[in-house]
Design brief:
mainly alpha, 4 helices
């Protein structure tokens, strides 16, 4: 769930930047709404399978083993985006940057949600 939320945040951020660019342009090809929609959908389509089918299970395994860190999260994101360099250099740059951003946001979300509230309080010695 955290990886999907992180991907949605990335897609909304990139789409907002694209819409802002369209709003500031003298002649926008797609317009503000069209620019937002295309970039949002494109980001989700490109990132959905790697983030949810590969990245989330990899990160969950790292978390379970106690190895989840900022560095390991970034490495997972970069590794999932790297194969797109074989398609096109520009796409590889976007995929690795986006993969790292989603992985780091996933780590931040998981760290924020990690607490010990589900562990029972001992009957004695709790002050």
């Amino acid at each position: 769930m955290a990886a999907f939320l992180a991907l949605l945040l990335l897609a909304a951020s990139l789409a907002s930047l694209s819409a802002l660019g369209a709003a500031l342009a003298e002649t926008a090809v797609l317009g503000v709404g069209g620019s937002f929609t295309v970039v949002f959908a494109y980001t989700l389509l490109i990132g959905l399978v790697p983030a949810l089918c590969l990245g989330a299970p990899s990160y969950a395994w790292l978390w379970h083993k106690g190895r989840a860190s900022w560095g390991s999260a970034a490495a997972v994101g970069l590794a999932l985006g790297a194969p797109l360099f074989l398609v096109a250099a520009e796409l590889g740059v976007w995929a690795t940057a986006g993969g790292a951003a989603v992985a780091l946001a996933t780590h931040a979300i998981c760290r924020a949600g990690a607490n010990n509230s589900s562990k029972p309080t001992p009957l004695r010695g709790a002050a």
